[in-house]
Amino acid sequence: MHLIKVLLVDDESDLLDILKVDIESLGYETLTASNGQEALDIMKKVKEGTLWVDAVLSDINMPVMNGLLFLKELRNLGLDIPFVFFSGYGDKEKTIEALRLGALDFLEKPYDPDVLLATMKKAAELGSMMKEIEAELNDLVKNSGIAEAEVEKFKKAQREMLKIKKMNEIYVKR
């Protein structure tokens, strides 16, 4: 098992520093980006396999590239990493769009540290679990003769089931 890594994305550097301390208190590593474009550049390295990230915590309203566009681009890359939004703006439409794009959760600023940590712990554990399952599937499939397209369909279904399971755990405990 690897050390869990979380990408934190916000244009407020002071808040990023606080989030970094909070998330690292869980024993996780953190990466930071000040906007969606910087975060997307980091995630392209994940796609290439030169870096890993287990979960993302991102603001929505940022310069250069906002959080919603970042999530869209992330999904276009084929990366299904657990994603949590947080924002200081109580915009219901953006919350709905975030969830439609596949965000695991949406938290409001100012955030409750206990809720943030519990949510990010679930998201990071989900990301780590998804990575382990994918590695196991790759090992099983290597010499099985199963068509790659069928394997991808199964992996996608497995990821969706894990997300539903974790979302249930998050919302049932609130």
Low-confidence stretches: none
Number of helices: 6
Approximate helicity band: 55-70%
Task: Average the pLDDT over all residues and give the rounded result.
Answer: 84
CATH topology: Rossmann fold
Largest sheet: 5 strands, parallel
The sequence of SSEs as H and E is EHEHEHEHEHH
Global outline: globular
What's the domain count? 1
* Name of the CATH architecture: 3-Layer(aba) Sandwich
Counted beta strands: 5
Output the radius of gyration: 16 Å
Physical arrangement of strands within the biggest beta sheet: 2-1-3-4-5
Distance between the termini: 29 Å
**CATH level 1 name:** Alpha Beta
Strand content: 5-15%
Within CATH, the superfamily carries the name: Response regulator
Sheet/helix structural class:
alpha/beta
Features:
about 170 residues; 6 helices; about 15% strand; Rossmann fold; alpha/beta; five-stranded parallel β-sheet; globular
Describe this structure in words.
Helices cover about 55% and strands about 15% of the residues. With about 170 residues, the protein is of the alpha/beta class. The chain has a single domain, classed as 3-Layer(aba) Sandwich (Rossmann fold), CATH 3.40.50. Strands 2-1-3-4-5 form a 5-stranded parallel beta sheet, sandwiched between helices. The chain is globular.
